[in-house]
Amino acid sequence: MARRDDAGLCARRRRHWSAGGWASTFFCTGGVMEREPGAAGARRALGRRLEAVLASRSEANAVFDILAVLQSEDHEEIQEAVRTCSRLFGALLERGELFVGQLPSEEMVMIGSRGAMRKYKVWMRHRYHSCCSRLGELLGHPSFQVKELALGTLMKFVQLEGVHPLEKPKWEGNYLFPQDLFKLVVGGLLSPEEDQSLLLSQFREYLDHDDIRYHTMRAAVDTVARITGQHLEVPLTFWNNAFTLLSAVSLPRREPTASSFYVKRSELSDTWKVAHLKEHRKAFQAMWLNFLKHKLPLSLYKKVLVIVHDAILPQLAQPRLMIDFLTRACDLGGALSLLALNGLFILIHKHNLEYPDFYRKLYGLLDPSVFHVKYRARFFHLADLFLSSSHLPAYLVAAFAKRLARLALTAPPEALLMVLPFICNLLCRHPACRVLVHRPHGPELDADPYDAREEDPAQSRALESSLWELQALQRHYHPEVSKAASVINQALSVPEVSIAPLLELTAYEVWGRGLVGGAGARVGGGRGQGGRAWAWGAELRCGAGLGVGGPGPGVLS
Question: Where is the CCAAT-binding factor domain (predicted)?
Fold first, then answer.
């Protein structure tokens, strides 16, 4: 929507309205409207201009005075002008005094021979466009009060234009919505320069309406395409604004029994796309896919991945189309890979996606740093979920158990108190992996066959190895860890241990418990429990029972 500079500098030639039609004159905004200084003076002067314009078409030129105040540097005066414009053009829309149809240029109307009433409506429609354009600019004003008022006024115009359309219907029952005006609103919200998070929080209330939600999704696609096309390097501010808006859009889980439209309709047609949840899902999908196809900042990847499993995937028309974004995120490493695997896991189990490298990717995330990163709790929560199926092959589960046991040798106590039950739970779920702790008639080995450097769990030879690391941890310096490692000497028929309470355990809490336990905890939870046998009748020891010698008799004796 092109902006008309109706409130510009002094002494610029303008077309103004007179009772007989058009005239050309020099118009000075600086001295036209006499008023007292300040917001109160502006309110009274604007009120007089408003009454004059609405009372008589011969006073239409007073619109210029109203629009001029929108350019004021005083934010209180701007607010008064916005309120005046809201009342003025709201009334003109309701009275049908704005031109309806393809808007001709003012010059074409001036030289034409049409009647004065038509010329007036065209002229006033141009003033309305100037007002809307300025309101769109005010969405980026430094004062939040101005931005909030401009947003409310534009949304009022959206509602009124929907009820009193400024375009002619193509056929009877044609669905009309002021899309150009609404794109102006969305474009202002998705500013490349201004952080609009607070204003977007105000806009969320409009998203409860079906028509606003539907057209927001469509307008967001156009705005993202326009901004990314205009900038070689898109500002982070724009990406954050766009994510804030997109993540605020939420669809109903099932087709609503009654539609909630912001633009009031006397009756709804079944042919309108806006009235069907299926079409909303398509628009939702197009909105997110067009956003995620771009190269996003790493901070934004994380924000998207945190919500993808419960706020995005369930609402897409075709969730499998997210595979490109998720695999791209999976290659970024660290927390982003983990979060991407969560989305891929949902696609695999709920949408029959084939992704053979899933567990290889997860296996590759297991390194010493995993015990020290701030997303440790989320990692092990998700890893527990990914490895929960009893149908996983034994070699795969054994590889994860062995890798965790090896990493446990250098892990801090607070991590060990969570990892040790995690490993025991894997053994409980997968009886085929019991050979890692008891291998009857197993051969004597001089070295551990497990290849810790192998990236493919299938080739790591973990199932040929044993969990000698757990016996070593029974001699850990911290009594709580020693006690936790000794639990593996109990029967595996014991139900799984929930690791949820252990995920957020801190070093402070661990050492606090150790001090409270005192010497008694050291004696009761240390080496004394190491001799209790497994339910299968074998001790966890170096030699034939394990099938591997571990690091040497000095550690395991």
Answer: 337-485
